[in-house]
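We emphasize that the prediction below concerns an isolated chain of 141 residues; any contacts that depend on oligomerization or on bound cofactors are therefore not represented. The input was used exactly as deposited, without trimming of termini.
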Amino acid sequence: MKSPARKKKRSLSANKGAGPDLKTLVILTMVTLLLLGGAIGFRMLISNHHENIGGAYTLFDTQGQKVTQGNFRGRYTALYFGYTHCIDVCPLTLDTISAALERMGPEGQNIVPVFISVDPQRDTPAVMQNYIARFSPRIVG
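Result of the prediction step, given as a token string:
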């Protein structure tokens, strides 16, 4: 005669291959709905945030002339924000931009690199002009 405990073990092991039970399906459904809701919420948050980006701007170049987005109409711009007293990242980036445009040859003529200072107190037009001249005559400062 077989013991009842053995019968129970056999019936549990026989059900394991039959597929997930109801509890597992409910948990998977809840996790899926939670992730989907989070993704929808994140997308809504991002899409609302981007509506405030962009717009008209007016800057002054190293010659004291006004520069607006209209000055670059029909051309691509590579905007870079930095400052002339930056000792590593700013010069490296400007050098990389200059080298990339040079390597592009004639195809790079439609791209205007623009260096915008985040330190206007120290980066006077004369300082900016000397700084960007070290990298490329094409850079607008």
